[in-house]
């Protein structure tokens, strides 16, 4: 399995904290030219850096401005690689992706969106802080096979459970995927109480699940 060197991970993080978008982009381009898969770049570079940035912010070691800048740079890098994401092979499956209401960190769920697109799915990306009522209303307008929800802040966990209950009333059978940095603090066992609600901890497990659904069809 391809892995990204820890020294390169540290270098990327340092450049990210400096706000050096050019150097961060150069690192990603170099990895892509070396045939490092997009999923590995996302999981072993972007995700690790974002979690570290979040921890530094949480412990007041960096400013809000630095945290926002780092997030903006990584989101721009996701956009740079968009043409590499679209799969020419399409399947007849739709997924809607959103952060839970009041959540403003959408990069994780955007990476999940890209993994679905790599595997041929049509995606509807609603992004950050979309009111739950709007998510539910939009879900009624499409032929939905699955919904993926991101939770970054653990104090919003009750809001996630309320959303799951409302969604389940409208869509009794539809799979609900959940994930995000908040689950480092727990909550996975509570999700077992709900039908067809699945916690996936990383992009690897997410892609494995997607491939199972694709093969099932």
In round numbers, the mean pLDDT is 92
Structural class: alpha/beta
Question: How is the largest sheet built, in terms of strand order?
Answer: 2-1-3-4-5
| Rough outline | globular
From N to C, what is the helix and strand string? HHHHEHEHEHEHEH
- Proportion in β-strands: 5-15%
**Helix fraction bin:** 40-55%
Please, what is the oligomeric state? single chain
Number-wise, the strands total 5
Q: Quote the distance from N terminus to C terminus.
A: 28 Å
- Uncertain segments of ≥5 residues (pLDDT<50)? none
| Major sheet details | 5 strands, parallel
The tally of helices reads 9
Radius of gyration: 17 Å
Secondary-structure blueprint:
Blueprint: H1 6-18, H2 21-33, H3 38-58, H4 64-80, E1 94-99, H5 107-118, E2 122-127, H6 132-139, E3 146-150, H7 157-170, E4 175-179, H8 188-191, E5 197-199, H9 203-216
Parallel strand pairs: 1-2, 1-3, 3-4, 4-5
Helix pairs in contact: 1-2, 1-3, 3-4, 5-9
């Amino acid at each position: 399995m391809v892995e990204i060197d820890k020294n390169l991970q540290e270098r990327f993080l340092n450049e990210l904290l400096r706000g050096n978008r050019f150097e961060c982009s150069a690192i990603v381009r170099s990895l892509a030219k070396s045939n490092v898969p997009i999923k590995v770049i996302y999981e072993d570079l972007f995700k690790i850096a974002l979690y570290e940035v979040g921890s530094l912010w949480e412990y007041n070691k960096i400013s809000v401005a630095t945290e926002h800048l780092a997030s903006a740079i990584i989101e721009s890098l996701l956009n740079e690689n968009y043409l590499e994401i679209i799969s020419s092979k399409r399947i007849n499956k739709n997924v809607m992706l959103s952060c839970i209401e009041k959540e403003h960190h959408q990069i994780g769920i955007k990476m999940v969106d890209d993994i679905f697109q790599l595997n041929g799915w049509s995606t509807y990306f609603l992004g950050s802080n979309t009111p739950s009522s709007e998510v539910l209303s939009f879900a009624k307008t499409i032929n939905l096979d699955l919904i993926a929800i991101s939770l970054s802040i653990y104090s919003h966990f009750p809001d996630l459970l309320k959303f799951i209950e409302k969604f389940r009333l409208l869509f009794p059978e539809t799979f609900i995927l959940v994930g995000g940095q908040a689950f480092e603090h727990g909550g996975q066992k509570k999700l077992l109480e709900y039908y067809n609600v699945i916690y996936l901890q990383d992009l690897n497990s997410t892609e494995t699940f997607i491939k199972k659904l694709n093969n099932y069809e």
